[in-house]
Amino acid sequence: MEYEKILEDIAEDVLGGPPEGAVADYISELARVDPDKFGMSLYCLEDDAIYAIGDSEERFSIQSISKVLALTLALSIDNEEIWERVDVEPSGDPFNSLVQLEYEEGIPRNPLINPGAIVVADMLISRLESPKQALLEFVQSLSGLDDIGFNETVASSEADTGHRNFALANLLKAFGNIDNDVDEVLDFYFHMCSIEMSCSELAQTFAYLANHGRTSGRTGRIITKTQTKRVNAIMQTCGFYDEAGEFTFRVGLPGKSGVGGGIVAIHPQEYSVAVWSPRLNEKGNSHLGMRALELLTSRTGSSIF
Amino acid sequence: MEYEKILEDIAEDVLGGPPEGAVADYISELARVDPDKFGMSLYCLEDDAIYAIGDSEERFSIQSISKVLALTLALSIDNEEIWERVDVEPSGDPFNSLVQLEYEEGIPRNPLINPGAIVVADMLISRLESPKQALLEFVQSLSGLDDIGFNETVASSEADTGHRNFALANLLKAFGNIDNDVDEVLDFYFHMCSIEMSCSELAQTFAYLANHGRTSGRTGRIITKTQTKRVNAIMQTCGFYDEAGEFTFRVGLPGKSGVGGGIVAIHPQEYSVAVWSPRLNEKGNSHLGMRALELLTSRTGSSIF
Amino acid sequence: MEYEKILEDIAEDVLGGPPEGAVADYISELARVDPDKFGMSLYCLEDDAIYAIGDSEERFSIQSISKVLALTLALSIDNEEIWERVDVEPSGDPFNSLVQLEYEEGIPRNPLINPGAIVVADMLISRLESPKQALLEFVQSLSGLDDIGFNETVASSEADTGHRNFALANLLKAFGNIDNDVDEVLDFYFHMCSIEMSCSELAQTFAYLANHGRTSGRTGRIITKTQTKRVNAIMQTCGFYDEAGEFTFRVGLPGKSGVGGGIVAIHPQEYSVAVWSPRLNEKGNSHLGMRALELLTSRTGSSIF
Amino acid sequence: MEYEKILEDIAEDVLGGPPEGAVADYISELARVDPDKFGMSLYCLEDDAIYAIGDSEERFSIQSISKVLALTLALSIDNEEIWERVDVEPSGDPFNSLVQLEYEEGIPRNPLINPGAIVVADMLISRLESPKQALLEFVQSLSGLDDIGFNETVASSEADTGHRNFALANLLKAFGNIDNDVDEVLDFYFHMCSIEMSCSELAQTFAYLANHGRTSGRTGRIITKTQTKRVNAIMQTCGFYDEAGEFTFRVGLPGKSGVGGGIVAIHPQEYSVAVWSPRLNEKGNSHLGMRALELLTSRTGSSIF
Asked: pLDDT tens-digit profile of A171-180?
């Protein structure tokens, strides 16, 4: 009800202005997406219901949003190892990613930047028999859906153009922070990023972060309350590339964006929300997505500040 | 009541363990402080009352906590200029401070790291006739006290040992981001850091950040609601040197620490809190201060995550 | 004669002291070498003769010395392209290799550091039909020998451990400064480094750099006089990792070292010289090799300073 | 004779083309210099005579050329200390100067870059009673002139604009590699750079580097043969900011340039040479000065490569 009206107002507002920003075009599959798509879905804990608007049921490439899922899966397996291999602090600008990795001797600043997520991927490969299958099953258990899958074309395109990721992974390997074969790790990493979901599916999937680590469905506890707090805290300080401070100010919720134009955000104990609009601002985050979430927290008074 | 009991429990808990960490000793005035001091004060918005425990009325050197006050004063004068000269994003590790400044051509990452606060100081000098006097009056108006002052011995000791700050200020000047004389800017900056306040005075002073920019007293609005949100967001992502992520996780509130062992934190619409314990952890933040605030948000359920 | 005596004196001197330094052990083939090997050979232009001592006829892995040969081959094909893709200035410390590459947007500082040699390898692959075969034939034409070859075990061991080189090559590729497949480029690069030659063969092979670009044999001109000057100048300023200044001071000749323990040096118009001793100093250059060359230039008065 | 003709040819050649490059203008005294000045002087060891052409007797600001004189004076006092505080290796690009200093914990890469020369200045202040007077007397003893002096206007202008040097000096101080007051050290450093000499005076002054450390006059030995070799080696690898490799290739002699448009170069056992032309190329070295020296070594066949 309330949320229905709020989402309608948001959609009207954000779709009213002239289009800004550009679709990611470093791989052709992402470039082909209709730039004017806009969808938004909010899962309300109290109502146990999804409120949605626009292209909320259309799947898109979740890209870096998957880093939160991979981290959660890793935490659910072993809470210790990952924090010995990855830090939890924000990083500086992207230029410094290789510099910092070099200076900090192969320990990535946090698990939501590429080198950190690559280490998480490596750990999952070591711990799981069929890591790709296991990750899909994990996402399926969170979402209650059984047809979540990888986009193989996207995954292989990422592999063709991801030279900087190969550079990072090899540097990590040189520092001894990658156990498996670099190609295998990155194959898994690129597949992870190629998962496709809709806004409503994402809102449902990420509900556990609003709910102390429990899904709303029959799956129950995914990670502990403390682990959930940790994941949310990392999203708050590190979820938006070089715009974490800006997002924290404007939206005031922990969240994570992807270059496919998706963003998920969490209001602990209240809701999980996902928004999709493929045009990105110059920092690589969805232009309208950020605007929509800013309006959401303004209108619901739910910013934490 | 409730807070009274909570503070008592916290004090008992944190004072029960063996002492950890060491007092900052790079200037003798700080080194001379009794390392076992512990005070904590919480200003509750609803009650318009201060709850305090321990050495809560003893003044100490607030050091970098003053950066928030200087930023607030600058915002109250002009909301635009500072954001043209300083960014709002977290920085990486301390090693990178000069590197980042160099790469980003003299634009500090945020106003709570030293180079950012030095630019804020420069702006205040340009805008105010007697900047030191004006800053004291501003803090006095926030706190309702008229005897807040600088510790001249601390200020001049900082000047004697602050070579890295002179390096930063001169690099900023080389990039054209300091208008005034470097010595004058740093003299003001070191004075700013030498302000002495007690926990209760700090809790009272920072109440405006919990109250949409308004003091509880007769002074009224200091900065706008949006500016307040901005300051809180910056504290959330950048307030703890290289431990912002850890503080966000453990405490889950925007805050700012100083090497004097003080920390202030804000629960918007609820309370402002200050804690003091001079022993610092290896990242330079008060060991027991962090622990005390973690206990506070655990027991009140007031973490944002 | 004169040189014969000088080499004898040098051998006596360097072999008299206690062994210092350690053999490179990052791949097992290099680690297996007898650390006490010592050989030295000098090709005198005037006499058109080789003077040699010790294990001067035993082949070893020339490693980075091959970078000079690859650069020469590239120059003999096209003098322009390589200087558009690689600079000619010394680099700072090894830590900065990735940093500098990042800052200078994929243009390596010079062709004798790894990223520069990788770009040279890429260019050779683009220009030559069978680059490995062509490189061997080129070296054979310089040396007058037809049995120079790669050590496949060394090459594949390098590939297994060369994560930092994969990082560099992928970063170069991300900046568009590698045209071919990274694996193919590094396969060629690792083969290049695996060439095995003896001191006498190296002295003969590098004679062209002492002789304005001409071999002593029937092959004739390899590169122009100006190109020869360029190669020598680059060896002078960049030939010894982070010890170029020290080598320039102690030996005073352009030269290039390899982690196999070999060093070649050139006295233009006078001689080319090669020395081999597998124990490396902490900067990665042959400990006795540097000492032997220092004695050579001291005794012949042939340092340029 | 021979040199007379060669200098005439060089002057004709370099002055024949259209002017290129721009005079340093960061301080007004340098900007006021006539950009078309050109002078060149060569001191021939064998003849004990100076050959000169053009504006060879007009004094100009020697700027960074003075770093070699300060280093020599420091070596003549104590050969050990300086090498504990400064390295002898080339540095990378200028961007990295602060980065490298930070990473290498306050040890400058070499004594001919600004941080290295600042450390040399600090050492001279500690060792000499009246360092400014002592430096002038030292230069007077090398040159045989008694009216060499500082340009106070230049020195104080440098102090007004040298923010980056203040940044470097304070960072060095923070690392404990400056013993004296930063302002005092930089005052000496800026005075050192403000010395004014003519080409002929420079050629005479630097004769000791061509003569194993001995002046041609009655002063005799300045530094040892080994120290001389060290200074020349450092000039060879580090004397030209980010163009050391290019100068080594084109000229092939150890040398040092200054932003006043002067360059000195040394052919050990043969000659010392100074050239002056104020227009600088984009790397900050005299455009015609480099051309003139390139012609000199081409025509005399005296390049070392």
From this structure: 999 999 999 9
